[in-house]
Here is the input.
Amino acid sequence: MGGCNTGTCAHRGTASTSIAEASSSIVISQVYGGGANSGAMFRNDFVELFNRSSASVSIEGWTIQYASSTGSSWDRTRLTGSIQPGQYFLVALSGSTGGTFVSELFPSVTNFEGMLELTSSSSIVALALRQNFASGIFSTLPVSPTSTEAYFSPNAGTSSGIVQEIQRTQNTIDIAIYSFTRDEIADALIAAKNRGVTIRILADSSQADGTGSDISRLEAAGFQLKRTNGGGGGILHDKYAVFDGRMLVTGSYNWSTNAEENNDENAVFIRDRAVIAAFQTNFNAMWSSR
Here is the structure.
C-alpha cells in the first residue's frame, strides 16, 4: 500500500464493530519517521494520536503496529492510559542518541514511550484495539486529514479561533506579539491563567502602551510578561503563539480589532510538530535572553 508521512498514511487490516466505534473518536494526527536520520530535528520517531470526541477514550491494550510496504510481519508497541476529549497523545518510538527527544520539547503533551523503529521509506502505521499475534491486526484508525488551517482577514474568525485554542489549552501558552488590543483574547488568557495554565508573553515595548493595548491589563493580572525590543535593536515584530506544544498560530495577524475587522491579514494554525518545535526553541531563546 502507499507511503506514510506527516498528515497522510496508508493502512491495512480487517474491520470489527467495536473498533469501528472507537475509530470515530481517535485518529492518527501525525507520523514522524526521521528520528534516526542524521541532521533530524528529533532523535526519535513518533506517532501522534488525537481524540476528536467529547468523551475520554481508554487505550489500554491498544497497539501501534508497523510494517514496511514490502514486509511480511508487524512490529508492535502496546499502549496504556487514556486520551481526554480534544487532547493529543504522543507515542515516542525509537531513534538515535543525538538530537532532541520529542517529549522534551512537548512536556505538556501526554506521552508514552515505545521501541518501534520506522525504518522504511514507504512505511505503514496502524493502530489496533486488540492484539492477535496469529493474524496481525483487527482494524486500523483513520488519519486526521487536516494539519494546517489558514485564515484571511478581515472577518475570517481568526480571533474566535485563537480564543478556542486558549480554551482547549491545559498546561502552557507561549506568546510573542507586536500589537495586542483584542479584548476577547485577553479575557480568554486571563480565564486560562485562573484555571492554572502557565502563560509567558513577550510584547513589543513600542506598542505596549499604545491606545487600547491589553498589555498593562495583563501585567496587572500577574502574567509572566516581558516588554522587549527586537534582538537587533529594532522592534519585536513577531505574531505567534504555541499552545501546549500541540498548536502554533502565526502569520501577519496582530491580536487586534484592526487585524480582525479592517486589515488584510493572514493567520495559519499549524499542528506540525517539527515546525512547532522550531518556534518553541525560538521563543525559549528570546525569553531567556530578554
Observations:
- The domain at 148-289 is CATH 3.30.870.10 (Endonuclease; Chain A).
- The chain is about 20% helix and 30% strand.
- The two ends are 50 Å apart (CA to CA).
